[in-house]
């Protein structure tokens, strides 16, 4: 018996090696296009709404609303007529005569939702219910081979099955109709492989379950290859008995290259069906060797390494095509996600396109794949069918490491067993927003409750949604506080931000308006067309796998930085480190910018360990303003560019400010005013309050006035007088501990430069902000140039993501996430000001800040009327402010102060108990207009 089996296996191997080029592969014929960038016109009839009641054409795949048909519906919409909206499709196609005798399936990758299919007037099978799942019908007996056939499909936007509507059509997202993913025919030999399910472990153990249509086949053989075609090991086989419809084959690969999000190593396996010495069908699958293990009350392990997920939720969405995507857009989205240094993505709230998972496989992202359910779930028969379709469609992607059975209460517990029974890899199953099977995935926990609760619980903590974004709130705001706790806490497995992109849809019924249904869909880190908001860069820095410990650059700096390697699988010596020194131009533009660059040896720091980076800087490094270090990963993707100030604001100010001048400073008093002139500058001060009321030069009146006004403090300046200090005029208030404890001093120099010094006490122990502001008519501003951190605005709880440098941007009135979109936004707080030039028509005002940690506030940003109060930040009065403390911003679900310590108000000492704690702000003004 052993001899016979050995000879049989030898014969199978011989046939596999000699005859594999003659094997029959599955043939595919697209009836539709492949995505929104390549479509095919089908005949179309819409039953309700726009352009209904007539036959015309429509591109397939597409969502018909975006093509001018039917009615737009957001998930919360209670339109009573929505169940009547259907689309009728017709398409004529030819099938090769050579396909006769094969099994021909018609495959729909996705259709919303109830879909009835007919071929040549005859039903292809039962109506398919469920929008996001690939389904197929055997239409071999319905086709005319070598002749024209007619496909008819009737698609109902809303299902006859109310559980489908509860799971898919009542969600917090746009509800579309139509055949939105590709449709194609697949031709298989009469004896063929129906399905291959793979399981490839990190130790090299490989097995596959192979389903076959068996009419006499007697063997299955397989060969593993690298993606460049090199064989890995020998072919491996299994004998197939005549009654078998499923068989398992297995082998072991020595020391395979493992798949992770950092090392997305892929292989390919060819599985072949043999009959009577002939290869009758071959199926090729890509896969990766990796092991996912959940250790109870511990964490998630990938290939034996405990990992933390830096993730985001992603809808399949594009403004002009709805849920109809393309391979090109999948590549775009995965690259943007990777560019934020994320390692994971959650499919919200339904399975994605196959090509999206292909890209996650090849570029490296962990994926949480989700069965639809949003506060409602499929009934058990429907959910069982759809879960099986989901598993069969996505099971071989190494990127898919978790299944999610519904979202936020949309869980059918009967379906957990379906995943357990039908997934060869036994992936973990979780319920989003629930503490289930050892995973606490609760959404939108406040920092104190969330972090505190997590630290006192026993489940693995992995919020599948946290820091719910809206417009410019959330995402980057609060992330550093959350992440540092998540990183340090042993039971944390990371988390997933909500969400990736604003879901703004082009309204073909409203002249192309980009509609996010108010604040419902404006939740993205990037815009609808993937425009990068400020939070994008904050996330990029906070989630960088290379972590720089905080340090200041002083003259004693020796080029050394302490690093932490927050990779899980990559040594930092695989990255590239470069540095740059920069001296920026001054406000006058007379001093040119200078740069010097260099490389450095990447430090050998193992994953999850700490070490030192040593830069070999030139001897003159102290002559520069800023130091930059850029780190590029092994795949040549920039992790981030960090920057540090070398020159302090006082040094820069000394090189800019000119106090001496050829003329004299003159002052006269009239009524309640001081009228001052110096070197062509005319200044008017209020004698009672010290406020600058007007300033003009030879070109005319400048628009800065009515300041300084102390914010959230007492403007109790009093007792003003003037005196000369040499050639300089000094106007100052008198100090009185009880009534005028805040003081103001103006100094006017013969050069025309003006100095302001304000000593003030914030008005309370907790304050939203601290500083002074001025009036500046918004219509007068054209642009701003500044030295400091930029180019994006900041919030108290979103300081990271910018760089030191010289920046300039034109005025815009962008409200983040609302059209018209211009990024970076002009208005808001800008950190670490050295100097700024407020540019008006024809001239400018230059303000120099010689102190560290001064913020420039440019006007009050515009926020939509439907902005949640949780998110709306507070701003000082006035228009242009110079601040020493600023406010934070909340999220859609949290107030500013509940996003963590950075979101709390500023805290200052009581001046009566700590009189030396008064804050001092010094500014210099150049009103010459240059």
From TrEMBL:
Could you tell me which residue ranges the Glycoside hydrolase family 2 catalytic domain spans?
A: 293-546
GO process annotations (BP): lactose catabolic process
Alphabetically sorted, this entry's keywords are: Calcium, Glycosidase, Hydrolase, Signal
Keyword Nucleotide-binding assigned to the entry: answer is no
Record's SUPFAM superfamilies? (Trans)glycosidases (SSF51445), beta-Galactosidase/glucuronidase domain (SSF49303), Galactose mutarotase-like (SSF74650), Galactose-binding domain-like (SSF49785)
Write down the EC number.
3.2.1.23
Start and end residues of each Beta galactosidase small chain/ domain: 736-840
The UniProt entry, under InterPro entries, shows: B-gal_small/dom_5 (IPR004199), Bact_Beta-galactosidase (IPR050347), Beta-gal/glucu_dom_sf (IPR036156), Gal_mutarotase_sf_dom (IPR011013), Galactose-bd-like_sf (IPR008979), GH (IPR017853), GH-type_carb-bd (IPR014718), Glyco_hydro_2 (IPR006101)
Locate the Glycosyl hydrolases family 2 sugar binding domain: which residues? Answer: 56-189
Xref: Gene3D superfamilies:
2.70.98.10, Galactose-binding domain-like, Glycosidases, Immunoglobulins
Which stretches make up the Glycoside hydrolase family 2 immunoglobulin-like beta-sandwich domain? 192-290
Q: Which GO terms describe its cellular component?
A: beta-galactosidase complex
Query: Which reaction is this enzyme known to catalyze?
Result: Hydrolysis of terminal non-reducing beta-D-galactose residues in beta-D-galactosides
Q: Which GO terms describe its molecular function?
A: beta-galactosidase activity; carbohydrate binding
The cofactor(s) it depends on are: Ca(2+)
Specify the signal sequence span. Answer: 1-23
UniProt subunit comment = Monomer.
Task: Return the similarity comment.
Answer: Belongs to the glycosyl hydrolase 2 family.
What name has this protein been given in UniProt? beta-galactosidase
Q: In which organism is this protein found?
A: Paraflavisolibacter caeni
